[in-house]
């Protein structure tokens, strides 16, 4: 493992930011102040951060409806995200997109997405653009286990392989698509097994283990950057909340989430490892926890006290130019 | 005795009664059961909005969860329909039609005609439409005009629980492909709905309110909003006739034209974007057939030409409101 102290601190900070962001959005949603549909990423942090730690702003990612974690990992600014979730004018998408559509193209974040399976074709396009632009950039599509069954995903795997695109497809298998188990909806043992059918490497990795994800991601990204073509990586992980905020989760066993939080929390695993091996100390982590708590507090207060859009905004930005 | 149930319950009851009546009726969609392969309860969702709850307990394998694979399962419903089944498939949000549109508009819609009349495709695609839930651009559209544009498809936009039950029963019994559009803001409204089975024929408009001064034609949720506007205007002495065509295809133009001949004024209220909408379509057809009866311009009250926005203030401006309807009518008088 070749992470120095700064990188370790950065990885922990990003994962903690995502967790704190999601835990807080969960609380705030319950008060009724956050409108619309919200899908939380808590529990899956190691995947987003494990991949995005290898990426620069020139590299692109496409996300899903469960997009907050990917955004934060890719460097999207937290205050703008929170304002967006609250539907404020200073939101990162001017209050027009909300939780399901957060995007920041300058950071290489091509958007959360309301359409399951919409990301992979777009990421083929991002890979194609990088190829033409010869900038050495790569493109990463995050999809869920459910989205892995979508035709758009399968077609994109084939296209990326045929065009030898610098693309990485990350299947975040959190066990469910809404209320349906991935053991039922995915026709083979592992999603990554499908890679063989499309002529690319397929790897399964423990998505609770940041270090394992980081390593596998690094190899696939390096390969893509060097012109070696696409990969499919399956992160096996878990979500700590319901499919959406408000989901009663009756399809889960009563103590499932409680047990998962004890045995499979990527943040705890990270902390245990770095402390055990003396890579970081408790103070390092405590300082980050405190700092992040303040950042999230600020973001929420800032969002709540920000202006909503006004009526003139309704018809702006439909086109670049429309006579 | 009145039996008050919700729109959701009315749809559920229609499905249940039709599945009991005809073993060829099968149902499918994402999480229409919920819990497949999971360790917790089955029928955990009964559909994303609970519309199919309980059908699994009653009909077992005749209702099926699907992977997220709209092109394949909507296409499978279409294919099974041509082969003698009567599938009712659920496309969670009409916005997702982009993923499976070919199976609907090139396949289901055209078999009968292309095959020289030999094929019948009795498939129903139930889907949710409409803004109001702050669900943003991918979960809020009212895309039924796109389906209405396609010859071969029938398109239903029910406006109340009573209407939903009777129209869905007709949809299941109908031998053509039917797109059945359930507005999300109607899900929990309640009204008196008969327990017994009944079918409401397609292409027969419902005159929801009689009036001699102006004709309002509205679809789905917009019928409710138009009724609000009509009550307000009645206090000012303007009597609106409110017509709910129930189906956009076939369209009961005759009832609309008759009303316009009486009132001389027409306002069409449609939550879709305005270009090539039902509002534009009906305006054009009425101008063609009853131009001489019109005493003023046809007014369209629609969403603006932009995607549904997320922010509540913007979304409230996006959806046609009773106020906008009354304003449009006052501008005529
Ligand atoms: C095309 C399309 N079909 C269905 C949906 C509804 N939907 C939203 S999220 C979701 C489940 C996605 O599951 P998965 O890909 O495993 O992602 P996860 O929610 O587990 O992160 C479904 C069915 C949608 N938004 N778009
Ligand atoms: Mg999943």
**Cα distance, first to last residue of chain B?**
42 Å
Order of helices and strands of chain A: HHEHHHEHEEEHEHEHHH
Q: Pair with the most extensive interface?
A: A-B, 50 and 43 residues
CATH superfamily annotation of the largest domain in chain B: Thiamin diphosphate (ThDP)-binding fold, Pyr/PP domains
* Tally of structural domains of chain B: 2
Beta-strand content bin of chain B: 15-25%
Question: Mean pLDDT of chain B, as a whole number?
Answer: 98
Query: Averaged pLDDT of chain A, please?
Result: 98
Q: What kind of assembly state do the chains in view correspond to? A: heterodimer
Structural class of chain B: alpha/beta
What order do the strands of the largest sheet of chain A run in, or round the barrel if closed? 1-2-3-7-6
> Gap between N and C termini of chain A, in Å?
57 Å
Please report the first level of CATH classification, the CATH class of the largest domain in chain B.
Alpha Beta
Q: How many DSSP H or I helices of chain B?
A: 12
Count of extended strands of chain B: 14
Helix content of chain A: 40-55%
């Amino acid at each position: 493992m070749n992470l120095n102290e700064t990188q370790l601190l950065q990885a922990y900070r990003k994962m903690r930011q995502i967790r704190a962001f999601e835990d807080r959005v969960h609380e705030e949603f319950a008060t009724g102040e956050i409108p619309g549909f919200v899908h939380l990423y808590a529990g899956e942090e190691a995947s987003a951060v494990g991949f995005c730690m290898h990426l620069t702003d020139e590299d692109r990612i496409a996300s899903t409806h469960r997009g907050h974690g990917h955004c934060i990992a890719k460097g999207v600014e937290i205050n703008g995200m929170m304002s967006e979730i609250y539907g404020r004018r200073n939101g990162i998408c001017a209050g027009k997109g909300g939780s399901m559509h957060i995007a920041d193209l300058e950071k290489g974040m091509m958007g959360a997405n309301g359409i399951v399976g919409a990301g992979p074709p777009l990421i083929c396009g991002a890979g194609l653009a990088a190829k033409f632009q010869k900038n050495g950039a790569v493109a990463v599509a995050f999809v869920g286990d459910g989205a892995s069954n979508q035709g758009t995903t399968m077609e994109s795997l084939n296209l990326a392989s045929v065009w030898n695109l610098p693309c990485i497809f990350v299947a975040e298998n959190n066990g469910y698509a809404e209320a349906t188990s991935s053991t039922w909806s995915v026709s083979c043992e592992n999603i990554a097994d499908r890679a063989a059918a499309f002529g690319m490497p397929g790897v399964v990795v423990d998505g609770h283990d940041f270090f394992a994800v980081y390593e596998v991601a690094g190899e696939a990204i390096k390969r893509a950057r060097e012109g070696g073509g696409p990969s499919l990586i399956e992160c096996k992980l878990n979500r700590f909340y319901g499919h959406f905020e408000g989901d009663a989760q009756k399809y889960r066993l009563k103590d499932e989430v409680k047990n998962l939080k004890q045995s499979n929390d990527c943040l705890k695993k990270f902390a245990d490892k770095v402390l055990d091996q003396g890579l970081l100390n408790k103070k390092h982590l405590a300082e980050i926890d405190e700092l992040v708590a303040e950042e999230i507090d600020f973001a929420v207060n800032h969002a709540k006290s920000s202006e909503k859009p006004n009526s003139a905004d309704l018809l702006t930005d439909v086109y670049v130019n429309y006579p | 005795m009145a039996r008050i149930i919700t729109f959701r319950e009315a749809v559920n009851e229609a499905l249940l009664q039709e599945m009991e009546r005809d073993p060829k009726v099968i149902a499918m969609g994402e999480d229409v059961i919920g819990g497949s392969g999971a360790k917790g309860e089955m029928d955990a969702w009964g559909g994303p909005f609970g519309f199919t709850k309980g059908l699994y307990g009653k009909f077992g394998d005749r209702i099926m969860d699907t992977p997220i694979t709209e092109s394949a399962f909507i296409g499978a419903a279409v294919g099974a329909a041509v082969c003698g089944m009567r599938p009712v498939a659920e496309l969670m949000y009409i916005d997702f039609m982009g993923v499976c549109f070919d199976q609907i508009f090139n396949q289901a819609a055209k078999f009968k005609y292309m095959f020289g009349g030999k094929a019948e495709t009795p498939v129903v695609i139930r889907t949710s439409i409409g803004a109001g839930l702050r669900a943003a651009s991918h979960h809020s559209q009212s895309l039924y005009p796109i389906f209405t544009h396609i010859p071969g498809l029938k398109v239903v936009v029910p406006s109340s629980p009573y209407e939903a039950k009777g129209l869905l029963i007709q949809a299941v019994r109908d031998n053509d492909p039917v797109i059945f559009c359930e507005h999300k803001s109607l899900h929990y409204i309640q009204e008196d709905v008969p327990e017994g089975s009944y079918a409401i024929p397609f292409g027969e408009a419902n005159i929801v309110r009689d009036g001699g001064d102006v004709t309002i034609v509205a679809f789905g949720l917009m019928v409710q909003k138009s009724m609000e506007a009509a009550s307000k205007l009645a206090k000012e002495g303007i009597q609106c006739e409110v017509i709910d065509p129930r189906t956009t295809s076939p369209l009961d133009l005759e009832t609309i034209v008759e009303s316009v001949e009486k009132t001389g004024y027409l306002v069409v209220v449609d939550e879709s974007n305005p270009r090539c909408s039902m509002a534009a379509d009906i305006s054009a057809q009425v101008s063609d057939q009853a131009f001489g009866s019109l005493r003023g311009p046809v007014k369209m009250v629609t969403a603006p030409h932009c995607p549904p926005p997320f922010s509540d203030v913007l979304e409230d401006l996006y959806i046609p409101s009773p106020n906008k309807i009354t304003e449009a009518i006052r501008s005529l008088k």
